[in-house]
Amino acid sequence: MLHPRHVRDLLVDPQLHPRGQPHLSAASGLARVKGLMYVIADDEHHLGVFDPTGTADAPVALARLFEGDLPQDKGQRKAAKPDLESLAALPPLPGCPFGALLALGSGSLSTRKVGVLAALDVHGALSGRVAQVDLSPLYAPLRLKLGNLNIEGVFLASGELRLLQRGSKADARNACISYDWNLIVPWLVGQKPVPPPAKAIQIMELGDIDGVPLSLTDGAAVAGGGWVFSAVAENSRNSVQDGPCVGSAVGVVGVDGAVRQLHRLEGSPKVEGIAVQEEGNDVVLTLVTDADDPAKASQVLEVRIALA
Prior knowledge:
This protein is mostly beta strands. The chain has one domain: Neuraminidase (6 Propeller), CATH 2.120.10. Helices cover about 10% and strands about 45% of the residues. The chain has three helices and 22 strands. The protein has helices spanning about 75-80, 135-145, 180-190; strands at about 5-10, 25-35, 35-40, 45-50, 60-65, 85-90, 100-105, 115-120, 125-135, 150-155, 160-165, 175-180, 200-205, 210, 210-215, 215-220, 225-235, 245-255, 260-265, 270-280, 280-290, 300-305. The strands form six sheets. A four-stranded antiparallel sheet has the order 1-22-21-20, with no helix packed on it. β2 (about 25-35) and β3 form a beta hairpin.
């Protein structure tokens, strides 16, 4: 069992937060670009940006992705939110010469089928150019094969854009869905109306904790073609309702798609975002949490594991 180190809470200036919160409370995706960390929260219209080398009490900056503000009421906000659950840093592509961030809605409801492509500048900062992506043509074939969608991870590895489907107690199937990067780029940037079919869909079984299945919440590539992931055992009946987190884990997948390592996390934090830094034969995993409570700040945690 690994003991996560608490790095910081995701604090924000309440005067700049649309609902006056002093923190982000539902962090769900994480990406590292040069000297910056970007975090997506599934109940916000903004992207969070912070310097990982800064002080722990430094506020997270907010960058708007959607116009308007979500309702104050938690239930109304849950019904209206785009549910951005995954975030990835992309290399240069048409219209984004210095790369971009890609955020994806989960697809679990009809209101959650929108993505965002946010261009970066030469320094890895947001350039201000933001484009929305209709995910309906991408998600429709996946729904036919996987049933209720809940896309919670996205990353680029080995020339493929990979999406992670999160299972639930009702349907414990996790999946890694791969697309040829060169084929999906024209659709992402609006040059083609229809995305390519998935190159592969790999069903993954991660076991369970106290009878609750472990389900993928995010992933990130490592050198050599493998990847790391975060997973939680959330006692929820489906992909929309929240439930208590009875356990959490991080793991390593080999280039062949087999799970090579699976480590429980002490304290069972509900980890929903992951970023990776490689240091020799070790990887340092930066994690963000979602406590399913607007009154509680999302946390940044850190663990180290050996790849060998």
